[in-house]
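Methods — Computational structure assignment.
A single polypeptide chain was analysed. Its primary sequence is given first, followed by the predicted tertiary structure written as structure tokens.
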Amino acid sequence: MIPPDPEFRQQNRRERILFVKKSADWVRSVPNEVWSERQCALINALLANRSNLPLTKEQYLRMIETARRKSDRRKGSPVMPSRVMMAPKEDPCC
């Protein structure tokens, strides 16, 4: 498998972050009744369309597990970058 171009991945990441920020701003700016109504409509539409999805739940989970095994990544959160890691605590007894 050829990994995607780093520039393409970075652009996709920026677009996803922008989408999440705009969505969060919208949720904060409208009354809960409006937000809840739209959320309910989305969930109902997804449930109504579930028979048209190309994969079954089992196929999807098998695909994810296979990708995880081939990528050599551990399950769970990614490793924290060193620039964000906390400095080791000094030993107070010495």
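Note: Residues 6-62 form one domain.
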